[in-house]
Amino acid sequence: MIQPARASALTLADLEAMDRDDPLRALRGAFVLPDGLVYLDGNSLGALPRETPVRLQEVTARQWGQDLIRSWTEHDWIGAPQRVGDKIARLIGAAPGEVVVSDSTSVNLFKLLVAACRLRPDRPVILSEPGNFPNDLYVAQGLQGLSNGGVELRLASADRIESAIDERVAVVLLTHVHYKSAAVHDMARITARAHARGALTLWDLTHSAAAVPVDLNAAQADFAAGCGYKYLNGGPGAPAYLFVAQRHQATTVSPITGWLGHARPFDFVDEYAPAPGIGRFLAGSYPILGIAALEVGVDLMLRADAQSRLDKSRALSELFVALVESRCAGLGLEVASPRDAPVRGSHVALRHAQAWAVMQALIARRVVGDFRAPDLMRFGFAPLYNRYADCWHAVEILRDVLQTAAWDRPEFKQRQAVT
Ligand SMILES: *Cc1c(COP(=O)(O)O)cnc(C)c1O
Q1: Alpha helices in 39-133 (DSSP H)
Q2: 153 and 240 part of one domain
Q3: What is the pLDDT of residues 159-213, one digit of tens each?
Q4: Can you give the CATH number for the domain in which 31 is found?
Q5: N or C: which end of the chain has fewer CB within 10 A?
Q6: Cβ 105 under 6 angstroms from ligand 1
Q7: Cα angle 366, 369, 372; round to 5
């Protein structure tokens, strides 16, 4: 942990020296980042890899344009979900054949929740926490609505989750790194507790994959899903992925029994028969352009040494917290994320009574984070392209915005549709 006293002695030159020594330094150049922009929102929408437009040009102009339908086999479009899934598996502690790229995170959560509940037919409860990303609760509520009273959603706060796992719980649905606070759940411990009580786990990895250590198989996790457009840099609305532990694959089915999850889709028979492995969780034709862009982001992530990547994520957020505490004291800010780096994800939430207006003023000064109602500013640290010096500039501008009340202008108080 960087102590505030040490942080207050740091200079911009120190941080620039850290950037020069950064083993991942060269990877920043692989991204398009506008000059002078301090982009701290890679946890909402990752930056554009330089290679992505080139790859999309290849897949559209040559594969789609010239080779047309033959591309499904000649360019292995048909195998893309599993090929890219196998690459993502390396980032989340899964084995080949346990991860597939498909649909959106929301749809994947639905498919996996149904699959998990069917493995525990005499247990009605999906257990989650209040304040989980609402989407995940909404998806569970949708399933509850479909089940004619067969499924019940129970919420228990993070510190009560383990004791709330009883013999009525079929599946524990949690977001590994909390989308607001960045608090990290102990995946191995909660999974062990769930298994001891006969329940299963489904982990939402949207804010953890590639940003904090994730080892699904070491934790013996049952199911997981995550998205492609945050730390994986797959582009807006990128296809998502899902994980089903090998041991469950033969006994689980997707509720969306589409033809590309069929064992022999091109037999065109009337009766559904699930594909043998993770492929059974595919439904319809997949977005080849989206998967092509996602693959570029995942390949870039795999180019970074895993330990350097995780160390840097942690060092960046730690530096940011220490700089905020040492340079913004007395300015009405509160660090709303855990202070202890090992239980914090790769973003930091700061609470301020005027969080929305302050964030708009920061964005006007070219420091981009985001806002989460009612009073949080989030700053995400992406190890492949953020620099230590970015933390410095962000905190200096934040301090100035607060000291001069630069946020206190009508145009910064206008709420927009997307926050
Ligand atoms: C971003 C996010 C999602 C994304 O779901 P989509 O289906 O891609 O919209 C899901 N869960 C959490 C916790 C998120 O932060």
Answers
A1: 51-57, 71-74, 80-89, 105-119
A2: yes
A3: 999 999 999 999 999 999 999 999 999 999 999 999 999 999 999 999 999 999 9
A4: 3.90.1150.10
A5: N
A6: yes
A7: 140
